[in-house]
Specification:
Rossmann fold; two-stranded parallel sheet; 210 residues; homodimer; alpha/beta
Amino acid sequence: MTLSIISEQTGPVSSRIPPHEMGPDEPIMDLSHVAGPSITATHTYRGAPALDILLVPGGLGSLALDQGGNTWIQEFVKSRMDQVDYMVGICAGVGFLAKAGVLEGKRATTSKAFWERATSFGENVNWVPSARWVEDGKIWTSSGVAAGMDMMYALLKHLYGTEKLDPMINNIEYAPHTDPNWDAFSVIHHVPGADPSIPLKDCVGPPGYV
Amino acid sequence: MTLSIISEQTGPVSSRIPPHEMGPDEPIMDLSHVAGPSITATHTYRGAPALDILLVPGGLGSLALDQGGNTWIQEFVKSRMDQVDYMVGICAGVGFLAKAGVLEGKRATTSKAFWERATSFGENVNWVPSARWVEDGKIWTSSGVAAGMDMMYALLKHLYGTEKLDPMINNIEYAPHTDPNWDAFSVIHHVPGADPSIPLKDCVGPPGYV
């Protein structure tokens, strides 16, 4: 497996959050106290190789891109949609899939904490208010960032099966949420249309043993 | 808060795993198929600033350092132990604390999947076989990497309180394990001395609501 990290330029890319507005007419928010590492982009979007899976991560940096009128991510998503086997969005990253138009007529979910804004992109998207993640054909989308771990467990299980996957998950000692419908966060964040009967707790443990 | 990422040199540091032996007389293991990003080191250990918290992460790269006779991490840990407010180790990273001698007479835990090797370092360490994480004074240590998330939730709660922390955790939609004694992984990995009465499942949900 090869991991290509794609950005506008190769080299270090900060994961810190540039100043941005949280909404129209709101003051500029400065989150420069939020620490984050830089990771190294291996390719520009112009020079990116063929991809089996295109994963668009989340983060508030998406707001800064929007407000700066920078559209490279949605254009890249659109240009690669037909070639990839899986198009994956996590949290605010799902917004780029919506803006690219690839969610039209599809079921998808996104961040529950920022639901109103996060679902303001795209047309005719069937936004699912209570879902930790949603699979619709080759499009997989997850709720807030931590839900991305559980979606990736489900996607890797789909690709490789539990026999190969579970020993690795047990080695890293992660107890995944395996029910995509468990979304207590949609309830506590009062997402319109959320299913109030979802239990707040989910009981999890080592996969293959529970 | 300032995040300093400390390594032997500044600039990109690969998180990929160099070839290494898993144990004495075992063949060299090549895990070059395991993908991982490069992150940017901000300081060398010689030029690192004063630190409030020193966190030593895990990973199989620790084996390659050992086998190459590279001891900079344990020397850095030893040199900073008196100055820091918290000395934190995650998974195989705990081994560097042990090798530095700072765990002598202390309670600590580490990876359950690689328990025998992981606990082979240090002298007079009171290794706790069933614990997702262990706090002993200013030393906090966690089991395998995913347990590090739950330890960090506990440490941040200790530092900032739930009123500030929980809204952020609920925004990222993480449901932390809050009981340090829940360690189903010690049971499934057959760690000697593990508590067999620990339930395999832990029921978790949005902090502050469950």
